[in-house]
Amino acid sequence: MLIEVTGVSHRYGSRTVLADVTVSLDEARIGVIGANGSGKSTFARLLNALVVPTDGRVRLDGLDTARSARDVRRRVGFCFTDPDAQIVMPTVAEDVAFGLRRLRLSKAAVADKVQAALTSYGLDGHADHPAHLLSGGQKQLLALASVLVTEPDLLVLDEPTTLLDLANARRVSELVAALPQQVLLVTHHLDLLAAFDRVLVFHEGRLVADDAPAAAVSFYRGLLA
Known about the structure:
alpha/beta
């Protein structure tokens, strides 16, 4: 998917959180880093129309997010830092099935897709378990399963490992690394980006570096120092 961000600024009231960002992206693995408050999460939310730019345009394969939000969301999956923010149904299986409703599949087809997703993410023994009573790692796996069962072209992940312990963070990162989808990952865990194609660095609302992982991470460490 071609991501085109052109002259984008975004303000919350009088506070500017992104300023004049222009970038074109089509790589399979894109990292986004920056300090808290740098604008990186706002940038991520632009890509599936959770946020619409105050100025400028965001287009995905030509679809303008301000004009075609519904079509954009069909093609762009989004996972939040806190999976509780996107778990909407009482049980694990129901939550995975929820995103399939708009596809108008038969009950048998939905059941097959749900079962396949639960098996892929190690949740097949928890189909009828209350979703909000899962462990933190299981909740993040459920959030991924519920998004990926709809087969998006692009998966945007906003700090998906921040609330997880080391073992679960590693498991989620390994699953993400193996996905066929294009992935844009916002993270503070810089080691996750070593094999990525490209990394963007945000600072005080501006895109200040755009490079290969090692060079971008080195630049970011310099900012922090």
